Every structure is written in C-alpha cells, then in structure tokens.
Amino acid sequence: MKYFNSFFTLILFTQILIAQESDCFENLTGSYWPIKVGLERNYISGNNTYSSLFNGDSIKYNGKYYLVETKKYSNGKTKISYWRRDSKGNILNYNKEKSIVSMELPSNSKIGQKWKSTDKTWTYKIISLSSNYSTPFCEFSNLLEVETTSSERKGMIYNLFYMKGKGMIGLNVNGKPYTYIKPNRKLNEKSFMAFGCQNYETVQEIQTCTSAKISEYIKNNFRPTTKIKKGKIIVRIVIQTDGVVQEAIIIKGIKKAKKQENELIRVIKSLPKFIPAQIDENQPIKTSFIIPVQF
Predict the structure, then answer these.
(1) Which has the closest alpha carbon to 104: 43, 41, 146?
(2) In whole angstroms, what is the distance from residue 8 CA to residue 73 CA?
(3) Cα 70 versus chain centre, distance
(4) Which of 25, 235, 256, 277 is the most exposed place for a label (fewest CB within 10 A)?
(5) Does residue 106 contact residue 125 with C-beta atoms inside 8 Å?
C-alpha cells in the first residue's frame, strides 16, 4: 500500500472572524461580472490562493477586443482568460485554445434562464437572484447563483455566486465550498502543524514535516478488513480550534471500496491533536485541507 508522502496544505478559515465593514464590499452597484482595468480580487481556492487582475492588456479576435484577466496562483501557475461585454450587456468569453466565443452571463438575468457554451460542453442555469453565501470573513446576501455542468466532467455540479459590482464571491463543487473571495485587508496567517514540527523555520519545512507525520500515521494505523482496491481517495479534513480533527469527508473515492474508505476515515479521525492554525494576534481558528491517499 502506497500513500502520497507529501501534499499541499492551505488554511481555509472558518467563521470565527468578524470582518471590518470594508472587507465585505458593502454598498457596491453595477454588473454581476465587472470587467474593468485595475479590478483586482483575491481568492482562496482548494489548496491554493490566487489573485485575479485586469491590468489593461487586451487581445483582438474577429474584430473585437477582449480584456485580459490574469490569475496568479500560489503554486506558481498562471491562467489567462479573455472577456468583453457586448452591446446588449452580455458577458462573453473568448476561448483561445478552441477559437470560440461563449456567453458566460446574460445581461438580464432571470431565474430559470438556461444557455450553453458555443461548443455545447457547458450548460448553465440561473438558480436564484437572492442567494446567500458565507465565507470565513463575510455573510453575503442577494447574490446571483448560477448552476453549471459539463459533459466533459461527469458527476460534477458547480454553483457560482456573484455579487453586483464585485463579481464572483464563491464557488461550490457538488455542494461543498471550494473557492471564495478574501477581504481587502492583509491577514497574518499561520498554518496548522503537527507537534514536533514547530521548531522548523520556514512554512515549507513545517508543511513537509506535518505532511510526513500524517502520512506515517495513516500507514501505521490503517487496518483493512477487505482486499485493497487500487486507486486514489481524496479526503477533506477539518481541524478544530483546539487542534482536534473535527470531521473527515470523502470528496473522491474508489468504486466499490466503501469499507476501505470507511477505514481511512476512521484512521484520519483518530489523528493526534495538532497545533491549530492561527490568524492575526495568535487567534486559533478552524482550518481545512485536502489529503490525497494513493492505494
């Protein structure tokens, strides 16, 4: 049996922070999908953070100019997207790889409204114009909610939440929060860590040490009662403010391996107490992270 010996961990803060008024972007007006030079937003997404910026660059396609959005991720990756608003106010995306233009959001959004991408792979439906969304920092209301699915990603349902004047606030994948916007202010963050790793100097060393201790614990305590099925199980873990594992949820499993998944959950829930994540003046907070386990 083989486990991943390392994985990325990133604090996903829970709702114990009280955000300042400016952090939650109150009293904004305008489009649900703003496209303007200088617009910058910061997000927590899965095991990464990323910044989104329209810096003024543009690209021309079929006689139309599309503003360039650059997303820079904490893992070093960069993603480029191209956007424009047509004469009717619809938001259009230019897919450079496929050389197609698709509507991402209609100007006059109505509940139940449906549309597809130009290549028919994505289907969109407006679910609500008054959805609520909670992040560790803010409680948002009166959001536009769009549900989308892809024929290329079977079994995946994406729900996107948009705020007027700010754009995307959050993204749920199969009902679970995956991406959400961060406040404007800079946060002083400290990741959770395993006991015995606190004397390392760098974040990378602490994460590597914590990862190794978790992997070793799983190896030593996993007791299967059935034949091991090969594949990858991905588990989302939540650590309480006292450092105890509060929950462990399978977000990707192996077909017909329920007992194997249950045993993995049992072991993960029994993990030793951690040093909890902290923010600002050493305030302990909940944190969640992803463990991929390869069998």
Answers:
(1) 146
(2) 13
(3) 17
(4) 256
(5) no
User: Which candidate, 57, 109, 108, places its Cα nearest to that of 83?
Assistant: 57
Between CA 56 and CA 266 the distance in angstroms is: 51
User: Does the global pTM surpass 0.70?
Assistant: no
Closest CA to 10 of 294, 290, 293: 290
> What is the distance between the alpha carbons of residues 230 and 2, in angstroms, rounded to a whole number?
10
Checking phi first, is residue 147 left (phi over 0); if not, alpha (psi -120 to 50) or beta?
A: beta
Q: What is the pLDDT of residues 257-289, one digit of tens each?
A: 899 999 999 999 999 999 988 876 677 877 777
Rounded to whole angstroms, the Cα distance separating 138 from 23 reads 8
Structure tokens at 162: 């948009």
Q: How far apart are CA 214 and CA 46, in angstroms?
A: 19
Q: What are the distances in angstroms from CA 186 to CA 121, 229, 278, 279?
A: 38, 44, 14, 11
CA–CA separation, 135 and 41 (whole Å): 15
* Token representation of residue 127: 């679910």
Q: How far apart are CA 277 and CA 251, in angstroms?
A: 22
The residue behind tokens 């944190």 is 287
pLDDT tens for each residue of 126-173 = 999 999 998 877 889 999 999 999 999 988 999 999 999 999 999 999
